[in-house]
TrEMBL record:
It comes from Paraprevotella clara YIT 11840. Keywords: Membrane, Phosphate transport, Transmembrane, Transmembrane helix, Transport. GO terms for cellular component: membrane. This is Phosphate transporter. One of its GO terms (molecular function) is phosphate transmembrane transporter activity. The lineage of its organism: Bacteria, Pseudomonadati, Bacteroidota, Bacteroidia, Bacteroidales.
Amino acid sequence: MEIVYFSFIVFLFMLAVFDLVVGVSNDAVNFLNSAIGAKVARFRTILIIASIGVFVGATMSNGMMDIARHGIFQPQMFSFNDLLCIFLAVMVTDVVLLDVFNTLGMPTSTTVSMVFELLGGTFILSLLKIATDETGLLGFADLLNTDKALSVILGIFLSVAVAFIFGTVVQWLSRLIFTFNYTSKLKWKIGLFGGIATTCILYFALLKGLKDSSFMTPEYNAWIKENTMYLVGGCFVVSTVLMQVFHWCKINVFKIVIFMGTFALALAFAGNDLVNFVGVPLAAYSAYQDFAANGAGQADTFMMSSLNESAKTPFIFLFLSGVVMVYALATSKKAQNVVKTSVDLSRQDEGEEMFGSSRVARSIVRGANNVNEFFSKYTPKPLVRWIDARFNKDEAILAQGAAFDLVRASINLVLSGLLIALGTSLKLPLSTTYVTFIVAMGSSLADRAWSRESAVFRITGVLNVIGGWFLTAGIAFSACALVTIAMYYGGAVVMALFVFVAVFILIKSNFSTKRKDETDYEEQLFKGIMNAKDKAECWDLLKKHVCATQQEMLDFVWKTYEDVVNGFVDEDLKTLRRAVKRIDAEKSRRKKLRQRELVGMRRIDKRISLEKNTWFHLASNSGEQMLYCLKRMSEPCKEHVDNNFNPLSRECIEEILPVKKKIVDYLMRSERIVEDRDYEHIDALLVEEEAYKQQLSEMRRAQEDRIQMDLSQGLKVSLVYLNLLQETQELLSDLRHYLRAFKRFQQ
């Protein structure tokens, strides 16, 4: 049996590799978003700096490992088999849960998932032990480390409030000092700012981080503690002078601070969050070593008191973890997807919004506007004018394609690094995702990046992300509890089954993501538009993007129209319901794509923009009208079939099916013309369209006569059929307007 347990320990380390890859994909947003958002350097340069920080932080991490050993449960009250069930359930749940969030592009917390998974697994086994305790004296306090668990949970969620307040206040004060036109306001301030930032980064990220590293001796720690003030003071003086000299030498100090902040935040992330990925496997490995040496094969009765000792992690495990994390950071496509969410929600200018609006967000914006008007009313006007002058966004200095400037990027990195490293030094596993994301949101709010035109969308996005965090906690707790109890009663067979299922899901997810990345042509075009420096290149990419999106729209139109007519004729309720849902989803998607293309229209040459603007909007409006036609014809058809009203008469069926076939063929040929940008045949296509409209007019008049003369035909089905003919004719009219506008826009 011992070989079986050893196999599970090996499986745990295999899952730890997956967890490291998935976790780094999720947490890359923590240390990449500021440097990427400010376009401080090429992506490869930023990645190299972050990778060095991750590797150094991983190899120095050790003190946080105790959370997985005895931070949540009382190990002396659990047998080796109990803890093996919990550890396996935690890892299986964790890798699948994080992979789902990464695929959706939603940053979640690896710390929260790990803590609540441990809580869920421990809670369900504690319930079982209490229920089967014959003495009746056993309670949760005997099984759960309630004090430590409560401090960990409070530390995680209180970090959200602390991060938002500090992010807002510090960024507001920084903007008052530097303004958006910061290059003309530096003088002596930049040296002082660089000195403070450098000192803070080195003190918290290095001095505090080194204290618990695997190679630090008590003598080194004692020396650092005795000389802390001298070290901090000397660092401040030297770094202030050095930064001022850099400024005089025309070296951008903000970029230096951002590079240092990226390194320090990556280091703090690895030191704080490594326990989330390898803490559980290492605790399981330590438990197995104790069981193999002293357990005498009695896995159900051998208690794990040895886990009460502090972790002494071998350096080789830390080194290998650092290597895997660096590899994951360099190769993960999902990491870039998660970074995009955070950067888009904190960008300075308006543009494509990833999220819609919600009732809660609208209420928050309305309340904030009322509060702002109240304070503006009673604040002295000269002070208001002075503050407004310091926050003049028209003077903002942004790199090409940057979401925000170097000042905000510096504050985000320095402040996030300080808060995370402070939590690490206090042995509190603060959520790096929560801290960095909320600091970025607080600083963007202070920077007035959330205008009245975008605030409701940004707040909706923030609420969605925060809601995902709480969802993470609930799902992690519940899922791990269920998996733990299944493994407890199912034994080794169920344990192995869950491990293989988790690995299969991860492999399938990563292959499907790779295929999606390779085929997402529109996304690549939009990235090209945003990164293009030449306006002619931008215009060429925009035309290709419009062509691709409109071709997809026409493809959707003919397929949906065919489904609606067939569903109505065949009384196929499932097909009609699916059509109605697809139309609503496509309308929402079209809105986002149009916003993207409007951003592109702003980036092309102004003369071309003025010339093509009318045709762009006319084509977009005509496309939207086609979707509304489909909606107006599909909903009555669905309602009619859903209510089991009379079916369409044989005469009408024989009349509509040949026309449907012609119109579908006509729409398909229109799609191919758009796809090939074959403008020469558009005029001939428009002439053909007139014949179809004339035929539909005759069918409408015939149906109106039937309604009046043929009383045997049900009135409800007659009206639905008449509506179908009217909307089909309107669909062709909208297609006519669309093709003309598309031709004028593309030529």
